[in-house]
Design brief:
The protein is α+β, with helices and mostly antiparallel strands. Helices cover 14% and strands 34% of the residues. It has 5 helices and 18 strands. The strands form 6 sheets. It has a 5-stranded antiparallel β-sheet with strand order 17-16-15-14-18, with no helix packed on it. A hairpin with a 4-residue loop joins strand 16 and strand 17.
């Protein structure tokens, strides 16, 4: 649980904007314990409080869809952190989606890894980017976030080499990063043409991926067209 006293003590700090917290109407998460930073934009909050606010656990959800009353959630946040009084913007309903495949990634037995090279925020690492490592009991929340648009995990912040973090199921890692060369067999009925392309997004095994040819043509390659050399 978040050290709420830190937020209570900060009430006197000048406001950074009319609203510190803006709850999103729809969010997809991985873990059962939903933190405020996963379902809200905190850009209006003072920088000294954003880290604490982002880790504030606000709900527990199971796989599937959970609809929360926005007014009640706003009241809960203001009760947990009095410094948020009058600084939370909420829609009438907050929908939290937790896909079964993402939920299965965080079972009872954790798996951790040490990052071998630095990664920028938004990068989609492969499982090979990590070496096995022991999980620390007091480890910080993992910076890896499931991105439904590519059905793979990305870094929610920049990460440095040597960081140890909890890892999701191997199936949630991209096998090919954006900007990687790929070979596809483009099929037109009975005819197939071998083409070299560049991926425009991270790719997971068995999933289609957006690609660009050397001539600049962009298309989505079905999984069955992709040739893994």
């Amino acid at each position: 649980m978040l050290p709420v006293f830190a937020l209570m003590a900060a009430t006197a700090e000048p406001a950074a904007g009319d609203g510190w917290v803006a709850l999103r109407p729809v969010t997809e998460v991985v873990r059962p314990g939903v933190r405020l930073g996963e379902i809200a934009d905190l850009f209006g909050a003072p920088s000294s409080l954003r880290g604490a606010l982002s880790t504030l656990e606000v709900a527990q959800v199971g796989p599937g869809v959970t609809d929360l009353d926005g007014v009640k959630l706003k009241a809960k946040l203001e009760a947990l952190a009095p410094s948020l009084q009058g600084r939370v913007r909420a829609p009438a309903q907050v929908r939290i989606e937790r896909p079964a495949i993402a939920a299965a990634a965080y079972g009872a037995k954790p798996s951790c890894g040490r990052l071998l090279t630095a990664h920028a925020r938004g990068a989609a690492p492969s499982r090979a980017a990590f070496a096995p490592a022991a999980c620390a009991a007091d480890a910080d929340p993992s910076p890896l976030r499931y991105d439904p648009s590519v059905r793979a995990v990305r870094f929610g912040r920049a990460a440095v080499a040597g960081e140890v973090m909890r890892l999701p199921d191997p199936d949630l890692f991209a096998s090919t990063a954006a900007g990687e060369p790929l070979r596809v067999e483009v099929r037109y009925g009975p005819v197939s043409v071998d083409r070299r392309v560049t991926t425009l997004q991270p790719r997971r095994p068995g999933r289609p991926v957006a690609v660009r040819t050397e001539q600049g043509e962009v298309f989505t390659a079905p999984a069955e067209w992709i040739v893994d050399d």
